[in-house]
Amino acid sequence: MIIFVEDRALVVDGYKSKFTNVGETLMRMPSDEFDGWIESCSQAERASVEAFLIGQCEDPQKKISAIRRYMNVPIVALFENRSLEQLIWYFRQGVDDVVSKPVHFDELLIRIACIKKRSLSTQPKDEGKAITVYFDGRDPEIRGEPIMLPRRERRILEYLASINGRRVTKAQIFGAIYGIFDEHIDENVVESHISKLRKKLRKFIGYDPIESKRYLGYRLQPEAVAISRMVPEKLSA
After folding, report:
1. HEC readout, the chain
2. I need a surface site. Which of 11, 55, 105, 121 has the fewest CB within 10 A?
3. Would the pTM count as exceeding 0.85?
4. pLDDT by residue, tens only, the chain of 237 residues
5. Hey, which CATH number is domain 121-236, 3.40.50.2000, 1.10.10.60, 1.10.10.10, 2.10.10.70?
């Protein structure tokens, strides 16, 4: 989920359907809701956020500072009437990138992916590993060959890889992929995505590396399928 801190609903609405069409959730957070939310949000809510877009809002300095205090995710500022002074100001507040509007949604996604890539901690590849999972927008590789996955399926695989074999429920996966605020999508859609992902992995690997148990949830089996990962520092800690 990408959160757009913006007081004008029409600005976010212009992007929302485009993000949805490529499998990404974009949520608007107005100024009067943001401050209270970021102070009280749960760990599950924080884990569901991939990035922040900062638009027109009250006291952006305070909001950027709060994001940095609680989360380690990309922050991209969007502003109109570009000026050198404003650009420098945003960078000094701690954002990762600054763009002037209008900007295409694809450019925003690419900029976010590039920020993630720069923050990655690279582990040496083990050629004997079956799956290589990246966290910078690239498709995973199976035995060195890329496997193209829809964005939702790739995000589920990344999430399961990031939690080091721990078991998670359908609700936890839903929160991480869609964001817990999305009340218009049925939580059961996770089962459909995981079913399709498992079939593809089984086809390329020869068996299903995702273990599921009723009432207990899902886990990616690190002991069954070795995973060579390039993981963000916040996940590898």
Report:
1. CEEEECCCHHHHHHHHHHHHHCCCCEEEECHHHHHHHHHHCCHHHHHCCCEEEECCCCCHHHHHHHHHHHCCCCEEEEECCCCHHHHHHHHHHCCCEEEECCCCHHHHHHHHHHHHHHCEECCCCCCCCCEEECCCCCCCEECCEECCCCHHHHHHHHHHHHCCCCCECHHHHHHHHHCCCCCCCCCCHHHHHHHHHHHHHHHHHCCCCEEEECCCEEEECCCCCCEEECEEHHHHC
2. 121
3. no
4. 889 999 999 989 888 888 877 777 888 999 999 989 998 887 767 777 889 999 999 999 999 999 999 888 899 999 887 788 989 999 999 999 999 888 888 899 888 888 877 765 444 444 556 788 877 677 888 877 888 898 889 889 988 887 777 888 888 888 777 765 555 677 788 899 999 999 999 888 888 889 888 878 898 877 655 454 444 444 443
5. 1.10.10.10
